[in-house]
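User: For a reading group we're discussing how well predicted structures match intuition. Take Flavoprotein. Before you show the prediction, I'll give you the sequence so everyone sees exactly what went in.
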Amino acid sequence: MTDLGLVASSCGGLDTRFTAELAAPAAALGWRLAITLTPTAAHWLASTGGLDGLAATTDLPVRSASRLPGQPRPHPDPRVFLFAPASANSVAKLALGVADNQALTLLGDVLGTPGITIVVAYQVLDTRAHHPAWPRHLDTLAEAGVRLHRLDPRRSWSAVLDRLPPPSRPVPEG
Ligand SMILES: Cc1cc2nc3c(=O)[nH]c(=O)nc-3n(C[C@H](O)[C@H](O)[C@H](O)COP(=O)(O)O)c2cc1C
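Assistant: Thanks. Here is the predicted 3D structure of Flavoprotein, as structure tokens, for the group to look at:
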């Protein structure tokens, strides 16, 4: 199986849609999921009882905290990443190189690396476009090779899975 680094932040619908429309369908497509949540996303799923259902989509631990020094790394090193849903907050931090949680540390470490595929599917209000830094954040990520996709709250999030390479085909090294 091919590993997929699946990262999520705290967007509306996380509790009802993330497992049903992203994690479970991705696993059904043949991806082995290495799931990392922002602390707020983990808090939301813990409070709604959604963590067990999410954990059932993978044999790997669902992460939201960094390991302690000396502890083994709990996840493999995927070559394909899907950051969905991505909040405006986390998109901005990723573009700026901020790594103040495990999810952003993971993505920041691989952003721009040759041979790594990153799809960022963000869900933001239309008014976000008025923030003067927002277009620059998207440009920064696009220039680093990120495949950007805006989630439409009226449609299934599963559509973004079409932006990933096929899980059965290994991504070339380099
Ligand atoms: C009910 C609710 C829904 C939210 N939905 C979104 C959303 O769809 N997109 C977004 O950018 N922020 C949304 N937010 C705001 C983020 O949760 C907030 O900016 C948070 O600090 C993001 O943290 P994170 O990126 O570390 O997960 C929502 C907040 C709440 C309370």
